[in-house]
Design brief:
Protein name: DUF1272 domain-containing protein
Helix content: under 10%
Order of helices and strands: EEHE
Low-confidence stretches: none
Oligomer: single chain
Strand content: 5-15%
Number of domains: 1
Number of strands: 3
CATH class: Alpha Beta
Largest sheet: 3 strands, antiparallel
Distance between the termini: 29 Å
Strand order of the largest sheet: 2-1-3
Length: about 80
């Protein structure tokens, strides 16, 4: 099973490309941008878990293992 690679920050809605650094996730894959992770002191507001750098997914793997297109930002 692979990571969902969610496309946006749940807190501010910033776009987070799967093949670029700058996304942080908890063990439930809640996803936040760098600025929001810093503002949250690297703690997930949903579960209280630690936010860690999300690994990137090489662009050539997107066809076989596509990143999620479901946005989580509630605005």
């Amino acid at each position: 099973m692979s990571l969902e690679m969610r496309p946006d920050c749940e807190r501010c809605g910033a776009d987070l490309a799967a093949d670029l650094p700058g996304a942080f996730i908890c063990s439930f894959e809640c996803t936040f941008c760098t600025d929001c992770a810093d503002a949250l002191d690297e703690r997930c507001p949903n579960c209280g878990g630690e936010l860690l750098d999300r690994p990137t997914r090489a662009k050539h793997l997107h066809a076989k293992h596509p990143p999620s297109t479901v946005r989580k930002f509630k605005g």
